[in-house]
Amino acid sequence: MSELSIIWSILASQVLLGLAMACALFRVVRGPRAQDRILGLDALYINAMLLLLTFGVRTANSIYFEAALIIALLGFVSSIAFAKFLMRGEVIE
């Protein structure tokens, strides 16, 4: 596989991830229920993490990989906190 095709495929994936982030943001804003908004936020942080990973691959800079790891950890914890809040009405017991 040539280097040019890899560059174009990474660029195409970044554009499609940006489009997926726009769709997830639409679900966050327009969600009829709180569960839909939380799922939209989950999709948004996953797409942001993947977009940072593609930036890291494209620029060969390790700071993007570290930022993606932080987003993944914080996104997982926030998803658990939101789910617990929806189930019980409180996060900390």
TrEMBL record:
Keyword presence, Transmembrane helix: yes
Any one cellular-component term (Gene Ontology): plasma membrane
Pfam families in alphabetical order: MrpF_PhaF
Compartment(s) of residence: Cell membrane
Keyword annotations: Antiport, Cell membrane, Ion transport, Membrane, Transmembrane, Transmembrane helix, Transport
A GO term for molecular function: sodium:proton antiporter activity
TM region positions: 6-26, 38-57, 63-87
Coiled coil segments of this chain: none
Topology versus the membrane: Multi-pass membrane protein
Xref: NCBIfam families: PRK06161.1
Family recorded in the similarity comment: Belongs to the CPA3 antiporters (TC 2.A.63) subunit F family.
Protein's name according to its UniProt entry: Monovalent cation/H+ antiporter subunit F
Organism the protein comes from: Pararhizobium polonicum
Highest classification ranks of the organism: Bacteria, Pseudomonadati, Pseudomonadota, Alphaproteobacteria, Hyphomicrobiales
